[in-house]
C-alpha cells in the first residue's frame, strides 16, 4: 500500500505531579507505568517526568498546580479535594459507593466520565481513571469495636472524602495524620485507630504490633478510583495521536494498579494472620448505623452543592442497577467459591 | 529541548479474524475498539481490518489462521481450542475458576500471561487479554432443575471448554448448536436447555418465551477472558512503538468490553424479569456435584496434558490465595451492599 505522508511529531515534554510518596509503590508506581507507556508508544517523542508527592508542590496542591498550569497533569485521588466541592468525592469513592468494576462501568458506559469531566471543567481539567485499590480494609484498632457505642469518642485516623463526616455523626473523632506518623500515634495511644489502605500497604507500616484488631471492609472505599487530571489547554495542544496515546496509557496504568494490588494483597494478608493479627468484620450494627449516617451526609451535600446533587443522583441510580445485577451471577459465583475448599 | 531524529514509520496493514458474529456486538465490537485505538495512536500509519467470524475463515479456524500466518491476529476465546490441548481453556475459563479481576491479577502480576505465552508459543502465537464478559448466566431451562437427578439425560446446548465433560459426568447430554439455531431447538424441544452469555446477549435471542427458567451462576464461566492471539513473526516485525501501541490497545479493548457488559446487563435483566422470566439459583446440591465432577476432569487433564498440569497447578495455587482475600474486604463489602435497600 501507499505510505502516508511523512510528518515529524514535535517532541513533547510534560511534568506529572503525584500526590503519593514513592514508598506507596503500587499507587505511586502507576504514574510511572503511565509515563513509560506514553514514551514507548510515542517512540520517545513524548516524555512525561513523574514527581513524587511534595517534590514540586504539596501532595494536596496538585489540583491547583494543574489548574494553574504549573504542571500539565497530576495523579491523585479526587476525594482529597472534597473541601473544594463534595462532588470531587464521587469521582473517587463515597461511603457505600460502587466497587471497582461498577465504577468502571459507570465511568466508561454510564454517564460517569461525562458528568465528572463537566464538573472538572470548572477547574480547567479533564480526568482519566488512573487506578483502583479494590475494596480497602476498615483499619487497625487498639481495642475491639462491636457496637456503635464503642465508637463514641474514638480517635481515628482517616483518609479523605466523606468518611470523616459520616464517622463524626457516629461519635468518632476523625484525625488527620500523614502515613509516616500513624504508627507512633497508635503506639503512644494518641489515637485509638487508623485506616490506611489494605494488607499490602498496611503491612509495611507495622500497625499489627500496636493495634492488632484489623477490621473489614472499608465501607467508605469499596472501589476508590485514583485519577489522572490533565490541564485542558495542555491536552488540547496535543496532536490527535498523542491524545490517543495518553488516553490508552491511562487505561494501562489503571488496570495494572488494580491487578497489582489484587496479586499482592493475599500474600500480605496471610503473613499478617500468621503474625497474630485479629481479622474482624465490622458488625451489622456498625455497618447499618454507618450507612444511615452516610445518607444524612449525602442529603447535606445535596443541599450544599448542586454539582454533587446532579452527579450523585446519576451515580446512585446506576449503582442500584449494578448491585441488583451483581447480586445474581457474579455475587452467587463469588460467594459459592468463597464457601468451598479449593 | 532537542527534537529527536525524524524517522518515518512505515505503513503497516494487518488483518484480524474474529470468531464472533457482528450481532454479538459487545464481544465482536472489542476488536473494533482495539483496531480504532491502534489507528488513532499511530496517526493512521498502522491499520488493522477486522473480519467477523466466517468472513475469512471458520470462527474456530482462527488459531490455525494465525499459526499459519494467513492473518496476523485473531480475537477469540481460548477455550474454543480445548480440543487441541486442554491447556487452552485455562487461558479463558475453567469451571469454578477465577472471576474477571482475579484472572487479570494472575495474568498480569502472577505467572498467568508468562505461562500461557510459553504454551501458545507452540502455536507460533502470543496472547493479550481482549475482554471479559464477567460471570455468565447458567442458561435457560424448559423445566426447573433442582437436583442432580433432574440433570440426567438433559440435552443442553453448551459453549466451549471443559463444561461439556463436567456436565457429562452428571448425566447431561451436551449439545453443540450455533447461537442462531438455539431458539428453534428449545421451541421444538430438540434440546431441554441452553446457555449463551448473560442478560444482554441472551435477551436478543428471545429464549424467555421457550425456556423461561433462567439459572445462575454459569459456574463454568466465572470470568472468561477473551483473547487477542498474534502471530509471533508478525509481532516481532513491528517497530518498538507499534508493539507498545498494540499492547496498550488490547488493554483498552479488554477494559471497555467488561465495562460495557456491566453497564448493559442490569437493564436487560430488569426487562427479562419484567417479562416473567423465572430467575433461579442453581441448588447447592447441583453446585457441589458440579464442583466434584470438575475436580475429576482436572485430574484427567493432569494425566493427559503436561501443559495443562503445569499451568493448572499455578492457576489453582494463585486462585486459593485470591479467594481467601476476596472473602474479606471485597466479598464483605459486596455482600453487605447486596443486603441493603439503596
TrEMBL record, chains A, B:
Keywords: Signal. The keyword Methyltransferase does not apply. InterPro entries: DctP_fam, SBP_TakP-like, TakP/all3028, TRAP_DctP_sf. The lineage of its organism: Bacteria, Pseudomonadati, Pseudomonadota, Betaproteobacteria, Burkholderiales. PANTHER family: EXTRACYTOPLASMIC SOLUTE RECEPTOR PROTEIN, PTHR33376. The keyword Signal applies. Gene3D superfamilies: Bacterial extracellular solute-binding protein, family 7, Periplasmic binding protein-like II. This is TRAP-type mannitol/chloroaromatic compound transport system substrate-binding protein.
Amino acid at each position: 500500500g501507499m505510505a502516508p505522508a511523512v510528518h515529524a511529531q514535535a517532541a513533547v515534554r510534560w511534568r506529572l505531579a503525584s500526590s503519593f510518596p514513592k514508598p506507596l509503590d503500587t499507587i505511586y508506581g502507576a504514574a510511572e507505568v503511565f509515563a513509560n507507556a506514553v514514551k514507548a508508544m510515542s517512540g520517545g517523542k513524548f516524555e512525561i517526568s513523574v514527581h513524587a508527592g511534595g517534590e514540586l508542590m504539596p501532595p494536596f496542591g496538585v489540583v491547583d498546580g494543574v489548574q494553574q498550569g504549573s504542571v500539565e497533569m497530576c495523579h491523585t485521588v479526587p476525594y482529597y479535594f472534597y473541601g473544594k466541592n463534595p462532588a470531587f468525592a464521587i469521582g473517587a469513592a463515597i461511603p457505600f459507593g460502587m466497587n471497582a468494576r461498577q465504577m468502571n462501568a459507570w465511568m466508561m458506559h454510564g454517564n460517569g466520565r461525562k458528568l465528572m469531566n463537566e464538573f472538572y471543567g470548572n477547574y480547567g481539567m479533564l480526568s482519566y481513571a488512573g487506578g483502583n485499590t479494590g475494596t480497602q480494609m476498615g483499619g487497625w484498632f487498639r481495642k475491639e469495636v462491636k457496637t456503635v457505642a464503642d465508637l463514641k469518642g474514638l480517635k481515628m485516623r482517616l483518609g479523605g472524602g466523606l468518611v470523616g463526616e459520616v464517622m463524626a455523626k457516629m461519635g468518632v473523632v476523625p484525625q488527620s495524620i500523614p502515613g509516616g506518623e500513624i504508627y507512633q500515634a497508635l503506639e503512644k495511644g494518641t489515637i485509638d485507630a487508623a485506616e490506611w489502605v489494605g494488607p499490602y500497604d498496611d503491612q509495611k507500616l507495622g500497625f499489627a504490633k500496636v493495634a492488632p484488631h484489623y477490621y473489614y471492609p472499608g465501607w467508605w472505599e469499596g472501589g476508590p478510583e485514583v485519577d489522572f487530571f490533565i490541564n485542558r489547554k495542555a491536552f488540547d495542544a496535543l496532536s490527535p495521536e498523542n491524545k490517543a496515546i495518553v488516553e490508552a496509557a491511562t487505561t494501562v496504568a489503571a488496570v495494572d494498579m488494580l491487578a497489582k494490588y489484587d496479586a499482592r494483597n493475599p500474600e500480605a494478608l496471610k503473613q499478617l494472620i500468621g503474625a497474630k493479627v485479629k481479622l474482624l468484620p465490622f458488625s451489622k450494627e456498625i455497618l447499618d448505623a454507618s450507612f444511615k449516617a452516610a445518607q444524612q451526609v449525602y442529603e447535606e451535600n445535596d443541599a450544599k452543592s448542586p454539582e454533587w446533587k446532579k452527579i450523585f443522583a446519576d451515580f446512585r441510580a446506576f449503582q442500584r442497577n449494578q448491585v441488583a445485577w451483581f447480586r445474581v451471577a457474579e455475587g452467587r459465583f463469588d460467594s459459592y467459591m468463597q464457601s468451598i475448599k479449593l
